[in-house]
Design a protein that fits this description.
Blueprint: E1 4-8, H1 14-21, E2 25-30, E3 41-43, E4 57-60, H2 80-96, E5 102-107, H3 112-118, E6 124-126, E7 139-144, E8 158-160, E9 166-167, E10 187-189, H4 207-212, H5 216-226
Parallel strand pairs: 1-2, 1-4, 2-3, 4-5
Antiparallel strand pairs: 5-7, 6-7, 8-9, 8-10
Helix pairs in contact: 1-5, 2-3
Length: about 230
């Protein structure tokens, strides 16, 4: 059955297009133009259309800059970030509490101050490697009116040993063929990570844009399971 879906704070069109492939009337909305097709995209503040009576599902990707746990230390270095954090939390909660039957709001792991303002923790945490991608990026979902997203294809990491060796996950963390485990436990690392587990993407002007793009396997699962 066709439903009318609003994909808020999405300029990539990845999630929108997965829903449209399955016959749904899906629209994205962002302050930026769509990277793919502006035909089904509102380039404006999502709050201007959020309260229309037509939406049956909302999937939102609000900016995480002031909410994510990885940036919490900056709150104690820059006083101006506290007010911006509160504003971001209010926006997040506005999306989460929208009068729409099915609501999904996505963000990275949040710090405790943001969670306090929003009023609730996430309902689910997912990883790209649960949906067919050789990548790790812990992602939290706040859910209303839908079941938790079910993994579709598990991708196992490659082990990286302290001696520098790389070997398959099936050999176990002490199974390094180069040192036979004498260097200690190896670390499981996915394709988007450095040997130490950090993200490979270096600091560039469009790093935030690349990082914010939804993995296609997750988008496909959203459309298949929630559409």
């Amino acid at each position: 059955m066709e439903i009318k879906v609003l994909i808020a704070c999405e300029f990539s069109g990845v999630v929108r297009e997965e829903f449209r492939k399955r016959g749904h009337d899906a629209w994205s909305c962002d302050l930026l133009p769509s990277d793919t097709d502006n035909t089904w995209h509102f380039q404006q503040d999502v709050l201007e259309i959020l309260y229309d009576d037509c939406w049956e599902m909302l999937i939102a990707f609000p900016t995480c800059t002031y909410l994510c746990n990885s940036g919490v230390h900056l709150l104690h270095k820059d006083e101006s970030r506290w007010q911006k954090m509160v504003e971001a939390a209010i926006f997040f909660r506005t999306l989460l509490c929208a009068d729409i039957p099915k609501v999904i709001v996505e963000n990275p792991v949040m710090h405790k101050y943001a969670i306090k303002h929003i009023g609730q923790k996430q309902n689910q945490t997912i990883q790209p490697y649960e949906f067919g991608h050789d990548a790790s990026k812990r992602t939290c979902l706040w859910l209303k009116g839908v079941f938790p997203l079910q993994p579709t294809k598990l991708i196992k990491p490659t082990y990286r040993c302290k001696c520098g060796g790389k070997f398959e996950y099936e050999l176990g963390k002490y199974g390094c063929p180069d040192c036979c485990g004498d260097s200690g436990a190896a670390r499981g690392v996915w394709g988007n990570q450095t040997p130490s587990g950090q993200n490979k993407l270096g600091p560039t002007k469009d790093r935030w844009k690349k990082r914010s793009k939804t993995y296609s396997g997750i988008a496909k699962a959203m459309a298949e399971q929630w559409g």
